[in-house]
Amino acid sequence: MSGIIARWRDRLPVSERTPIVTLGEGGTPLVRADHVAKAAGLPPDSVHLKLEGLNPTGSFKDRGMALAISKALEDGAEGVLCASTGNTSASAAAYAARAELRCVVFLPKGKVAAGKLSQAVMHGAEIVEVDGNFDQALKMAAEAARLQGFTLVNSSNPFRIEGQKTGAFEIVEALGRAPDNHFIPVGNAGNITAYWKGYTEMGHRPRMFGWQAAGAAPLVRGKPVKDPKTVATAIRIGNPVSWKTAVAARDDSHGMIGSATDAEILAAYRFLAEKEGVFCEPASAAGVAGLFKLAKARKAPSGLTVCVLTGHGLKDPGITARFKPKLRRVKAGGSIKL
Question: Is the pTM of this model over 0.90?
Fold first, then answer.
């Protein structure tokens, strides 16, 4: 059997009683990014990309969801629910379907990318559309879970963090050591928390560099953002659940949490597609945008760097309309000079 539980059972909170719900998550590629390294003024082979968009539902959420749904099933839950900017709902719906559990997702109205919404719909999730932002949707979801006995599978669920830490295990395994620097997007802040947990459990302490969108950067501002705004919908979160643990990861690793503008994020998003052949969703490019920003200020860290790309580009295909294609129209049957 494949999947994170089968691969990392001895490092996860499972027992023989735990039913394994898996779609074969984990084992995502770690690829060299020599064009990114060159653009950042770093040596070849010094930057690698962890392609989490190649998980079953197209995002890193599948790691934590496999464990959270497995534990919910073990505990006899009647159903699961979550609030989501998109990826969590897609993952929760898929794994709940696999486990034959009822799934309810609370989504901020008009703020979920079409690719993600379509997944939740097709996997049979019951959708509650909230006329508000993600933070308000999460508050409603948590209250509904408490009153009605459902299992909340947002990153406040500790099993989500446990599952997501396996990404760090894979990076160490692939490189033969931990990277010196780890760049990652930060929205609800569970993933930076999870990777730091995974590294430290293996005895490693890379510097953690978390990157938020400038219009949704509560950790940078030091206070919640009431109305977060960014094209990077996956990290459009104004009051992260894992705030304290993300700050602890930053401080304990002597790293940083910064912000990148939408323009910087979209530039990195396009660069990855055109130069590295990697199509990720905009939020996923935040870490690379952060690396480029530090490089421009001559502050890019030396050593081996891993940038986690958290979701596939087809999660948010509408963004590509912002870029003009290299298009020529010709009459059928004619010749064309290339």
Answer: yes
